[in-house]
Amino acid sequence: MEQTAEPMAERAAETGRMRTPQGACGTGATRRGLLALIGAGAGAGALALAGCNDDVVGAEAVPQPTPTPGTATTPVPVATYDATDTDRANFALQLHYLLGAYLQAGLGGDALPAALTGGTGSAGAVTGGRRVGFADAALVALLREVTGATVARITYLRGMLGAAATAQPAITIAGGADGPFEAIAHRAPAAGATTPSPSASPTPAPFDPYASDADFLLGAVALFAVATGAVTHLAAGYAEPLRASMGALAAGVAAGEAACRNALFVLAAKQPPAPKDPTTLFARAAAMSDGRDQYDGPADRDVDLGANATTSLRANIDPNDTNGGALRRTPEQALGVLYATSAAAVSGGFFPAGVNGTIRTSGRNA
Questions:
Q1: Residue 37 lies in a domain
Q2: pLDDT one-digit tens code per residue, 4-48
Q3: What is the pTM of this model?
Q4: DSSP track, 5-60
Q5: Which of 48, 51, 82, 268 could form a disulfide with 281 if both were Cys (CB 3.0 to 4.6 A apart)?
Q6: Residue 136 lies in a domain
């Protein structure tokens, strides 16, 4: 990944306060027009950005419903700002801190060195997480490669941002009933839902992403799905000459997600067909997709892993929209998932004190 421009801290005045182009991936946008926007040098990153979700608009202009009068508590105000390239890159950096923390915890590695975690904002530590007793040496090798690439992107983003780089915030990656993974492991019961009958499927045990190879991959896919959608969405908003390199960075995140999805699919496909069994990996992956999707608005911005019916096996390793393009989330939608709320919020879930940077408030995504 090439980047010859000086650190963003020195370019802020040049870049200005640019809005993400609303026409970049809106209704009627063409693949040719988007590729032209990104630039011919984007390579694989351009391909990652080639698809559009028609109902997603600019990251800095997500439409929000009018608050309901008479609520018991004062809602968090919706963020209003014009994001700069520095803001966008710092948001990508915050997502990478979470990815890196989770991957390194599962592999039993050390935390990121202080040289890769300092910066502006409130610095915090990583809590929760533990080494996974992996049974498959090939999977460990795959995860080491994905982890190495994730740490390399952290290094790259921090070098590009220079003195403007934000610090690693407080992050929790705990499993179990009180951990953030449990909040996105399945869709919450609807308000006013009745208690399930004794004949209904038993309530699944709290999700522990460190319990097995498959559980860790379920957690990795969950985090990568959010990160891939967000950095892909942001890539088209950068000013030249950053669009190409940030498009390539988004493609790198997507590659990490694809590696984890493929490994999980292989494990799921080995299980006997059981379409109605909620404990199969295909069923659990679908439940977690729904769990993420409940926090980012009414449209479907997530996909399952596939299915293993009695007579056929369906793969969903390359998540894309109806145009074959990458699924995307605005930062506000991504933060809804990571804060585990469909309301506007500045903290929660994986980030108990919120993320650092200008882009830090989730949208009202109900």
A1: no
A2: 445 555 544 444 333 333 333 433 333 333 333 333 334 444 444
A3: 0.79
A4: SPPGGGTHHHH--PPPPTTSSSTT--HHHHHHHH-GGGTHHHHHTS---TT---TT
A5: 268
A6: yes
